[in-house]
Amino acid sequence: MAVHLSLTAKIATYPLNRKLLQIRCDQLLHLLHLEKAEVSVVLMSDAEMAGYNEQYRKKQGPTNVLSFPAEQADDGFVIPEAELGDILISVDTARREAEGHQHTLHHRLTELIIHGLLHLTGYDHERSEEEAVRMWDFEKELFQRLQTSRSATMPFLAINVDHVATVRQARGGIEPDPVLAASLCELAGADGIVAHLREDRRHIQDRDVRILRQTVKTKLNLEMAITPEIIDFALEIVPDMVTLVPEKRKELTTEGGLDVLGNEKKVRKAIEKMRKAGIPVSIFIDPDAAQIQAALDAGATFVELHTGRYCDADSAEDMKQQFRLIEQSAELAFETGLRVNAGHGLDYRNAGPIAALPFIEELSIGHAIISRAVLVGLDQAVREMAAIVKFV
Ligand code: PXP
Q1: Rounded distance, CA 297 to CA 308, Å?
Q2: Whose CA is nearest to atom 2 of ligand 1?
Q3: Distance in angstroms (rounded) separating the CA atoms of residues 81 and 52
Q4: Orientation angle between helical segments 206-215 and 228-237, nearest 10 degrees
């Protein structure tokens, strides 16, 4: 491995995504055409960094990053040509800087890794203004190229089959069957099936969920409101997971995330019941820090971040803002220890950037796929979406 990433014991409590940082380090070496180089990146605490800062730079206190290019040792020991050197990063300082700039911790750590790497390759920002500008411009360029390059952390694609049932219910008959549709989705590459059993049974019926429980080979996620009747049904069926959603009789589709803060007791009780039955719980929430914390406090395993506002944005600027909110919320939720899914309103045009976000495990998509399936067939519609989401 070209980049040796290590974390000291002192930062063990930080929920760092080591895999993501390793991927970014490897991608950076690739972008710098340094695939054969050997680099050591050590993530440490402020106290540890202060020790190195004092020892090697005679400066008091910690700093964010230190780079030590590999040099010929005094004793004549020959250092292999490929060895670039060491980068030390204080995660405590990175965390403070991230908060100051309203960035995520992993965003800031990535910037510091880039900065350290450029120092190792001869870039400098202290010798002259011209060199500093050159270095900063290149840092920005590398960061952007990392963000647009697809990583190996592509999420799973879970397909919501509610709208197959919507067409069936339009005539009150038996066609098309969401159960058959779910099998076709799985054959075409879906990683999971989602069905929302609404109180008013407007699309998915009890029968559908019962048969899906027996036929789904991947993972069955039951979307549900917190009502005694549906809770009992979930406990009887035991899906692979449930997603708690708000439900309003008059809405066309789920309109917003669940207000976990305002329904704390109810949510906590429902989660406790599911936990006893061994059913992991996700909560569909708006990308909002207080709701994330409430979901964690209530005992959820996952949150599903509502992507509706991003999808419905009416300007490029608004879309960018909504995207940023989802990006930051995904990382925040991950850092607090939650697993993160996302969904609602995603289509063939807007799903790609969300799929490329590193902390999101799974996208839940329904309407766009079923709509396209009417025109091109379900198999093709699923494969096209899988190509976007999973980059297959
Ligand atoms: N996630 C949740 C919680 C939902 O309620 C829905 C809609 O049923 C979806 C994802 C899928 O949304 P869409 O059908 O717009 O893809």
Answers
A1: 24
A2: 344
A3: 25
A4: 30
| Residue type, position 388, single letter | I
Active site residues: 196, 223, 344
Together in a domain, 122 and 187 = no
Does residue 267 line the site of ligand 1, with CB under 6 A? Answer: no
- Euclidean distance between CA atoms 109 and 105, whole angstroms: 6
Nearest to 89 by CA among 130, 57, 69, 117: 117
295 conformational bin, left if phi > 0, alpha if psi -120 to 50, beta if neither: alpha
**What distance in Å separates the CA atoms of residue 296 and residue 333, rounded to the nearest whole number?**
8
User: pTM of this prediction?
Assistant: 0.76
- CB of 284 within 6 A of ligand 1: the answer is yes
User: Which structural domain range is residue 118 located in?
Assistant: 3-148
pLDDT tens for residues 30-61? 899 988 899 999 999 999 999 999 999 999 99
| pLDDT single digits (tens) 198-229 | 999 999 999 999 999 999 999 999 999 999 99
| Number of domains making up the chain | 2
